[in-house]
Design a protein that fits this description.
single chain; mainly alpha
Amino acid sequence: MNLSATLILAFGMSMDAFAASIGKGASLHRPCFREAFRTGFIFGVIEAITPLIGWYLGLFASQYIMQWSQWVAFTLLFILGARMIIAGLKNKPEDNLTTATRHGFWILAATAIGTSLDALAIGVGLAFLEVNIILTALLIGMATMVMSTLGIMVGRFIGPLLGKWAEVLGGAVLIGIGSSILLEHLGYLR
């Protein structure tokens, strides 16, 4: 994967955290930048760690399925992208809005872990490709931090509607990247 594909992947991976952050921001009473950055930092750190864990798990299995690596990456990205699109299109009941000005650490960490499970699976897929996993994980973490911070700040204005479409867009990006990897392997893209 080249740098532009890695950046697209990083921002694609951050879309579910962005969607969750919009919801979190919508539930806060005028969140300040400090709270937005705190949320973004927590989400970014967790999102950066999970692809590393997945990558190491993938390395362990890579000796068994290396000849299928592009198919594995495509399948994982397609499934995760489709899951994000389906989740984004589902009608979600409105969360109970409160006048809180800050979310607790454990609530944010649990949300971040929930939105980063796809990054774990992406890490497994990346183990089958020649990528710099440290750079990729850092870019995913930084993109998630930026998008989550922005999500909190705009959440109260935009609310869950854009969050839903942000997740759909993130899923479409993942499917596009997976398709690109497969088409390149099959010789259609050079």
